[in-house]
Amino acid sequence: MSVTAAGSRRSLEDVVRGYRRRAGLTQRQVAERAGMSVASLRDLEQGRVATPRVGTLRKLADALELTAAETEELVQLSQSGKTETADLWVRILGPLAVRAGGVDVDPGPVRQRVLLGLLALTPNKTVGREGLIEAGWGEQPPANVVDLLQTSMSRLRRRLQAPQGEAEPARIITATRGGYQLTVADDQLDLLAFRARLELARKCRDAGDIPGACAAYRDAVELWRGDALADLPSLYVHPSVVALTGEWQTMVVEYAETAARLDRHEQVVPLLRRLTEADPLHESAHARLMVALAGSGQQAAALTVYGELRRRIADELGAEPGREVAEAHQRVLRQEVHHPEIAEPVTVRAHRQLPRDIADFTGRDIELTALRNKLTQSESDHAAAMIIAIEGMAGVGKTRLAVRLAYQLFGEGRFTDEHLYVDLRGHADQPPAEPATVLASFLHLLGVPGDQIPRGLDERAALYRARLREQGVLVLLDNAASAEQVLPLLPDSPRNAVLVTSRRSLALDGAHSLPLDVFSPVDARLLLTQIVGEERVAADAEAAQRVVELCGRLPLAVALIARRIQGRPAWSFADMTRRLLDASDRIDELTAGSRHVRAAFDLSYQALGLSARQMFRLLGLHPGDDFTSASAAAMVGCPEEAARRLLDCLVDEHLAIVVTGERYQLHDLVRAYARDVAERDEEDGGQAAVDRVLNWHLHAAYRAKSVLSPAVGTTFSVSDESPLDLPEFDDEDAAFSWFDAEHASVTGAVALGVEYGLESISWQLTALLRTYFERTSEWDRWVSVAQLGLAAARRVGDRAGEALLLSDLGLAYGQLDELEQSARSAKESLEIRQAIGDRAGEGWSQNNLGIAIARCGDVAAARGHFQAAIELARKLTDTRFEAAVLSNLGQCHVGLGEFNEAVTCLRGAVELRRNVNDIVGIAISLHCLGAALLGLDRYEEAIPLLQESCELCRQQRYRAYEAEALETLGKALREVNREAEAQECWERGLKILAEIRQERAAGTVS
């Protein structure tokens, strides 16, 4: 089938659709192959994508197995409809430079250049407003800085417009939620072009096309004109610039390694010279420079490099160069720098040369003691080798713990015959190590001549085990990919021990598994102190602890931040706290030199399948701290059973944590990384997923609230029809338990809805939370959420929603003794409802205004509002509402000393509430009735009513009200000389209140 286009934009859709049909693939099949969403492909085929990205089209071409000519055709068609921004070329790999419309463009004064540079460092991603302001105006910006930022961005847009452009400026810089974004294609920004060429080089290298890889590396190098943004000193230490420098260093080392395979050493000597001058302790670069110099015929210069590096390391670190440099030195001495093309070698440490232990190793005393004890026990109990599997998320310190344990064992005189180490590359930018290759290396180290090493995997494994049976050997298998990879490498003698580290749950038979968690607060603080120094930490202890918590107590993150602070004496912990509090930049802040937390997470993410990747990144947008498989399924839009399988994958990769049997959690930094990936990789920034999960919470919360408290009207309804799998609630206890587990997620959903323009859902969720927070007496928490919900209702002009939340806020403020605010909110609610003709809502507002006025002391005036509410309830034949107001009117009579009238009202309220089975309402009215009877000295009559009220409150977990009812019951019992029982009631009530206070302090009220 031949597909042609006449150059029009419309024909691109026909071309893509035609190639897909030629391949006989569905949209879903193509999308999965290309690593894109079905919705994105559908939009492309239906012409809803204005300017498809070149990178996306090339992935699509790979998925459809197009020829080079067909791929180029797609790219050309995508460019044919571009605006004047197609001629844009922004360069940051060197001094900032811009061309637009074929001519050089001056971005403007320094501040505008800084802003453009910052946007270009993270293309096609939002840069937070706070970060832009700090970069442009420093730490003490003027009061009108937001206006100044908007003005600067407008000027930048105009300057980036090509001279021949029309009046409308190019929308290359756009305002987004919380900041601004530079939207560019690979051919409009040298950074993106560099990364595309680097990706091509790595693909060629991995496929064995070494000449092609060298050419692509050379093309990538040519884009660099000097240090990134070299003309903007204020950005020199910005995390993104530091990270970009790390990318350049990595690329140079890779290029040198690849060029050496073709003996093209002279190509990389200048680059390696530049790198080693910039980083005098970069051992990988020095090792490759030595090889490159010797390969270019400069053996003396190579040996000089080694000598200078060795002296430098000895002077500054008090150590010797590492294995990589030592091996390069030996190659130079033996003149073995010319070699034929060979497969990437597996890194195996020499005999008794494990990775070095580190001086600033901190904490893990409990784990180390437990593991040593386990190994001691195993020596006497086991007939096979002892196996310890240390598993955990990226950056948690698995390898360092294993190495420290190994050295402790050596210090105790154990396993001293041989030490074998291998990096199995389970999570690396190279393929996992083959067990057969590892065994060949191990056998060589164990003294087996090359011509005696068997060819087959099983034969090698058998010889390996035989060699280890008579020796006390410790084997460290680092960074394992799977149990299948590890099994052939396990010895079978009880004289041997094996330490395995992995980011995956390996489930090795006979192994003791240690799931390694993040540091305790004490250990994390100790690591910070070890690196930064006790004096600086003690000087700002509170901010230092805050930094540790913002790092999620992840050892790698704490260490990287500590090293950044150590190298910057002018920085305070408060400065770093402010940087880390910007969630959009937190991951990029966690860097030091060429080491990044992001790089560690990237490898774990890339190891996932396509569906698991989508699940992971969307969970970064999930509201609250934890989630269930049901809400995760809603997020992704898949059946719950499928969601469970995907969550199992994330748990196995230690990207998700099982909190309880049904609840999962992402570590704070993992969640920040996942959200960052979602905003980058989801075509709509995750909008559709957020819409789904918020609707799931709305429908579920409405169901739970309807069971928990049907008497309290919301004046809005939510359809029970939903494509989502929703929870079922058989009784009030189940509904309360759901709120108990999900209230943090529902609260988070309110804020998330505001962020994503779903304000109508936000205010409704706020209203549905009120009953739960009333039961737990957490009025202060509900008020903070309600204020956000109220603003959301006002933003979308929903007067009914505004009135509902004002009415409920009136109650909440009253409970918090903010009486004037209580009356004001209730009055405003009533006025709105009367204005819009909301009769049912008006009744509730009359009731709540009555409560507010009564609390202010005007009980007589409150009575009028209750009577008006009762009339409305009877007109609407709303029995539950009538009973609630009648109960309040009864309390009003008590306040006026009208006890007989109060008893009449409250008996009526109890009867109505029993008729509709309003359990909580019955408990409240019984308590009020008992209190009224006390006013008439009818103690014996009051006691059973109060006892029933206490029991119902206990059953319904209405704990604060139970304490209040117990106090009243105690008074009644004392009046009839039942002192011991009275004392017991008061003690129970005080215990409940103490528990509530304690749980509030811990944030775990239930």
What does this structure look like?
With 1006 residues, this protein is α/β, with parallel strands linked by helices. Among the domains are: 10-82, 434 Repressor (Amino-terminal Domain) (Orthogonal Bundle); 85-190, Orthogonal Bundle (Arc Repressor Mutant, subunit A), CATH 1.10.10; 192-333, Tetratricopeptide repeat domain (Serine Threonine Protein Phosphatase 5, Tetratricopeptide repeat, Alpha Horseshoe); 365-515, Rossmann fold, CATH 3.40.50.300; 521-599. It is 62% helix and 6% strand. It is built from 45 helices and 16 strands. The chain has a five-stranded parallel β-sheet with strand order 8-9-10-7-11, with helices on both faces. A three-stranded antiparallel β-sheet has the order 1-2-3, with no helix packed on it. β15 (657-658) and β16 (663-665) form a beta hairpin. α2 packs across α4 (54-64) and α13 (283-295) packs antiparallel against α14. The chain starts with 9 loop residues before the first helix and ends with a helix. The relative contact order is 0.04. Residues 1-10, 81-86, 163-170 and 340-351 have low confidence and may be disordered.
Quick structural gist:
The chain contains 45 helices and 16 strands. Mean pLDDT is 83; it is low at 1-10, 81-86, 163-170 and 340-351.
Which consecutive residue ranges, at least 5 long each, have pLDDT under 50?
A: 1-10, 81-86, 163-170, 340-351
How much is the average pLDDT? 83
The span between the termini is: 66 Å
Number of helices: 45
Integer-rounded radius of gyration? 35 Å
CATH topology of the domain at 365-515: Rossmann fold
